[in-house]
Amino acid sequence: MKVLVPVKRVIDYNVKVRVKPDKTGVDLANVKMSMNPFDEISVEEAVRLKEAGTATEIVIVSIGPQQAQETIRTALAMGGDRGILIKTDETVEPLGVAKLLAKVVEEEKPDLVIVGKQAIDDDSNQTGQMLAALLDWPQGTFAYKLEKDGDALTVTREVDGGLQTVKLALPAIVTVDLRLNEPRYASLPNIMKAKKKEIVEKAPADYGVDIAPRLTVVQVTEPPVRQAGEKVEDVATLVSKLKTAGVI
Amino acid sequence: MAVLVIAEHDNAALSDATNKVVTAAAKFGGDVDILVAGEGAGDVAAAAAKVAGVRKVLHADGASVAKQLAEPMEALIVPLMGGYDAVLFAATTAGKNMAPRVAAKLDVMQISEITDVIDADTFERPIYAGNAIMTVKSSDAKKVVTVRGTAFEAAGNDGSASVETVAAPAGPFKSEFVSEEMVKSDRPELAGAKRVVSGGRALGSAEKFQEVIFPLADKLGAAVGASRAAVDAGYAPNDYQVGQTGKIVAPELYVAIGISGAIQHLAGMKDSKVIVAINKDEEAPIFQVADYGLVADLFVAVPELTGAL
């Protein structure tokens, strides 16, 4: 089974985001960038499938600036086999990303695409589902567990209220949630080996799809700031304050 | 202008989340219809017809949409969109699962988790875990939107819409429902609860989480939440997770116990009316958003609080 794993380069999880004073966006100059945390879980799952003998090849793909190549390298160091960078300095919306990925899928013909459920920058939670629709493939979103079962894939999903298990005919799309696995750190020898792995560079124009943005950003602003209240001495004081506030 | 709202339900009862989406839909300034897709969900359709401001309810009944999986829901919703300018879903796991599928089929860029409707083309939504609020204007002819429930009041239940039957899509589909394992609880549902008690990594184990958090939650009639760290550590199920990648809550009272207050957690609860934090680290960022902070050992303070209520 061939597995395709799209990864996104995003602002690091620990960076405090600052809105630009001119309200055009957030300040990304000189901030640490990393692989989207959910994409690390996707890569890990693909590598585990390969280690278990279920997956035969793992192709990593990223859409973004030249530096997204580093993100692909990280995925290759974790165990990906080769990479594709679709290079662009423009913002590509989830619909555009899904259209590009659909073309990559046509070329690469994977049996499974594993993608993070959401990117922690724009928090859209769309790409995997859109790709599934464009390809007319079934989807297993917010995966907690997945298991290959002949020509089908059984996916247990994190849903409001508990877990739901669905069976998908392959080829299929899976989007991963937090508890699916704990991603590994790449070892130094694997980081060295990843430097020799192939990354093919492409441009969006190579795929002939319309990725022009549909949304115009009117403005980006700071959220209202919540003021810190008071520290209370002890439990008795807390209870009396809450009673006064009328919440208990 | 006509807006279609996709009902959130479990075939037995209509979720309050739907009423909130209807409020958002009304701000588009046009007719609002609700689609109830399910199996044996007649009561849900009847309840949807009572939601204030709704023109009509479309009711699709069939095995293919019993669990509202994304593939049959796409097949049901996309053809209906000929008659609508926008389709709105609750930003729940069900809504997030199906909305982008509908959007891609309509060749529309979805707008996720809106917190305000400026006009029928322009919306506000949080990005970067709520650390920035983006206003976007869509150039698509039709809008596909998911709605963050905490940002909208629930529409009333004094309406009287008509109910129309629409055909459920015929299969086969490439996905099938196998089973589900729902957490049984007498506590209120987290996303819509008036009070929430959440525990963090400082609880130290799943046993302690239950021993300390549950009695307080039960005393308060509160839902139980958890930080991502507590979920990661296996102290609480994922369904409890409050934050950027979990649930967004805005209860009247939020009690954060042993939670340091990472920005990703704050993203999920900082719109709560009153926030109480109990943490032994007085430098914990949670105190910067708490109305009442108690610097104390949670294993002593929380049982004491439970006893005092």
How is this structure best described in words?
The complex is a heterodimer of chains A (248) and B (309). Chain A is 27% helix and 31% strand. Chain A has 248 residues and is an alpha/beta fold. In chain A, helix 2 packs across helix 5 and helix 3 (94-108) packs across helix 4 (127-135). The mean pLDDT of chain A is 96. Chain B has 309 residues and is an alpha/beta fold. Chain B has a seven-stranded parallel beta sheet with strand order 5-9-4-1-2-3-10, with helices on both faces. Chain B starts with a strand and ends with a helix. Classes of the chains: A alpha/beta (248), B alpha/beta (309). At the A-B interface, helix 3, helix 4, strand 7, strand 8 and strand 9 of A face helix 3, helix 4, strand 5, strand 7 and strand 8 of B.
Coarse morphology of chain B: globular
Question: So how many helices of chain B?
Answer: 8
Sketch the topology of chain A as an H/E string, one letter per element.
EEEHEHEHEHEEEEHEEEH
Strand content of chain B: 25-35%
How would a textbook summarize the main sheet of chain A?
A: 9 strands, mixed
Q: What is the largest interface, and how many residues per chain?
A: A-B, 81 and 91 residues
Beta percentage of chain A is 25-35%
DSSP summary, beta strand count of chain A? 13
Radius of gyration of chain B: 21 Å
Oligomer: heterodimer
Counting DSSP H or I runs of 4 or more residues, the number of helices of chain A is 6
Poorly predicted segments of chain A? none
List the strand order in the largest sheet of chain A.
Answer: 9-8-7-10-6-1-4-5-11
Average pLDDT rating of chain A: 96
Work out the radius of gyration of chain A.
21 Å
As laid out across the biggest beta sheet of chain B, the strand order is 5-9-4-1-2-3-10
CA(first)-CA(last) distance of chain A: 57 Å
Helix content of chain B: 25-40%
Shape of chain A: globular
Order of helices and strands of chain B: EHEHEHEHEEEEEEEEHEHEHEEH
